[in-house]
Amino acid sequence: MASPASTPMIRPGGTLGIVGGGQLGRMIALAAADYGLKVHIYAPDADSPAFDVAHAHTLAPYDDAAALAAFADACDVVTYEFENIPHATAAVLAEHAILRPSATALLTTQDRLSEKDFVASLGIPTAPYRAVDSAEDLVRALDALGRPAVLKTRRFGYDGKGQRMIREGDDAAALLAEFKGVPCILEGFVPFEREISVVAARGPDGAFAAYDPCANEHRDHILAFTRVPAPGLTRATGDAAVAIARAIAEALDYVGVFAVEMFEIAGPEGAARLVVNEIAPRVHNSGHWTSEGALTSQFAQTVRAVCGWPLGDTGRTGGMAVEMENLIGAQADAWAELLAEPGAHLHLYGKAESRPGRKMGHVTRLKPLG
Amino acid sequence: MASPASTPMIRPGGTLGIVGGGQLGRMIALAAADYGLKVHIYAPDADSPAFDVAHAHTLAPYDDAAALAAFADACDVVTYEFENIPHATAAVLAEHAILRPSATALLTTQDRLSEKDFVASLGIPTAPYRAVDSAEDLVRALDALGRPAVLKTRRFGYDGKGQRMIREGDDAAALLAEFKGVPCILEGFVPFEREISVVAARGPDGAFAAYDPCANEHRDHILAFTRVPAPGLTRATGDAAVAIARAIAEALDYVGVFAVEMFEIAGPEGAARLVVNEIAPRVHNSGHWTSEGALTSQFAQTVRAVCGWPLGDTGRTGGMAVEMENLIGAQADAWAELLAEPGAHLHLYGKAESRPGRKMGHVTRLKPLG
């Protein structure tokens, strides 16, 4: 654990750098501003939503070492809103600024194979998996894991992109060929009861604070609803999920907010089993409910953690039940109805263009515990 | 009342203009961003805190007609964070954009004399007052109202600036001379029990929504604490206060958020009497508690009102009691302790320089109803 002397607090008035200009960066920027920080966004897209709410931005590609160095030099601490940051990029950032979470956390979690190797090394269950670098690898992996199984690219996947289910009778080699030779992983299919996630934070002093585990419901491979408390999740299983998240954070000496997605598998005689699906080294869509539903939002918590400030209270607002609904593509066209809905809290991301499958906003609803 | 056809809703993705770059503009900008709006700030100071969170800003004096016109042309609707906007400025803005609240609301409330004349014309009590444009006026006014009385400049006063108490034995003419000939008003001293304020909103369709009346405690003429529910305020007096605020808003055909400060004066046999002290045609410091303490913050409510959207729920979060404490000058140096205080919500305004008497931030605390 780092000593207090090595982890100075960033002062209000200082500058928080955020790599990535999407809605997650935007919401972190809003939280940082509310704490009196300046925000500097680094992103390669001119119409990045986060640019609109930042003191400064750098519009440059992720492999522009000079721009990265100048950006990091201008920041007191740098964080990121997505994990697909090239290692060389992270190395430049870490050389010129405090990078939180660390480059190690990025490296470990941006590749499905190294992520699963890491989780397995902690004695925490994952779905069974095999590396797949060739058609021969895939044949062997399918022999070992059976069908159905899920073929995924090791990197750059999100919202179901970069993955294919391989069922009985499917031409596995043809599915693999769609990924054009990029390194893949085959994961055994897990017949889960529910998908939950734990969003939590760890500070540079080792302080840890988790939000209540939430249940996630996907449609078309995109998160549609998050519900807290997770319906049907027992206290014991929820506690076990948080313990898994904490073990992962400690093993990575993690600093910041992160999410661990897990599958809950029904066991014999009601005993449930958890397997880790994915780690996100950043704020997570399944934590959006915290903006109204928790005493500290995951965005404010990110700022607290990476600045070396005390972590905020992760309790639920008034002990209420919370539902977060994503607004995908044209769903956001209902903004006027959502503004008029009693008790609904609307968030829109300011994206210039609505496209099918694109996350345009979300809405949070708080209800008395049922 | 304007017809629906004449009050189109501003769409997310549209641009909200805000005149003024201080913390109020900054907090409105943050709320607007959360609704997917772009924000354009107009202010004459290069280090305006609101610039840091806005899509665009115009750095120009308030009498630069060309800059004002270009700014308003770039906005779908324009609002403001302070009332001391010259009439010519408001006229240019209203010519080039929808200005909400209106120039009439500005004109009426930015001058203590016209404000009091307006309130009195509605049959709503104010402190007794007289216009003072000369030493002779002041003699007559003191004869009529007695001592103590409060001499105030008609315009540009805030946080106790531009006002002097005239007590027995004071050299009234000398006190008047300090104001160097600007138009003044003398107000009879009101021996009030408590100062309360009503923060409320009215939409272009006439919809009205008030927050619970709050009690304000000042130190050195600057708001120090706001408490909701207002301790000791009866339901009947609170309802009367809201009715006064509503009557004022309707008489002005007001669109936006506003605050009405009132004094509660104890009457015979427990009957309380309210007199209006001041109207602020904008979000107000005594409404800062709404960010965590109400279901819709006064900043979000401003955006809803001026965009022609449905007003949000003004109920208190979980029915809790709320206390807002201003952080004045060096008080904000305690930010690290406040971040560590359980249940405290810290807001800092990102001001470059801390000065005695300058509002640097505030903290909100929610507690179970006592």
Structural domain count of chain A: 3
> How many DSSP E strands of chain A?
18
- The class by helix and strand makeup of chain A works out as alpha+beta
Pick out the low-confidence regions of chain A. 1-5
What does this structure look like?
With 370 residues, the first copy, chain A, is an alpha+beta fold. Chain A folds into 3 domains: 4-109, Rossmann fold, CATH 3.40.50.20; 128-188, ATP-grasp fold, A domain (Dna Ligase, domain 1), CATH 3.30.1490.20; 194-367, ATP-grasp fold, B domain (D-amino Acid Aminotransferase, Chain A, domain 1, 2-Layer Sandwich), CATH 3.30.470.20. The first copy, chain A, is 27% helix and 29% strand. Chain A has helices at residues 23-34, 65-73, 87-96, 103-109, 112-121, 135-145, 172-177, 235-251, 290-293, 298-306, 335-340; strands at residues 15-19, 38-43, 56-59, 77-80, 98-99, 129-132, 149-153, 163-166, 184-188, 194-202, 208-210, 214-219, 222-228, 256-266, 272-280, 321-328, 344-348, 359-367. In chain A, the strands form 3 sheets. In chain A, strands 10, 11, 12, 13, 14, 15, 16, 17 and 18 form a 9-stranded antiparallel beta sheet that branches. A 5-stranded parallel beta sheet of chain A has the order 3-2-1-4-5, with helices on both faces. In chain A, strand 4 (77-80), helix 3 (87-96) and strand 5 (98-99) form a beta-alpha-beta unit. The longest helix of chain A is centred in the middle third of the chain and has 17 residues, at 235-251. The radius of gyration of chain A is 20 Å and the shape is globular. Chain A starts with 14 loop residues before the first strand and ends with a strand. Chain A binds chain B through residues 9, 12-13, 26, 29-30, 33-39, 51-55, 295, 304, 309-310, 312-313, 317-318, 320, 332, 335-336, 339-340, 342-343, 346-352, 361, and chain B through 9, 12-13, 26, 29-30, 33-39, 51-55, 295, 304, 309-310, 312-313, 317-320, 332, 335-336, 339-340, 342-343, 346-352, 361.
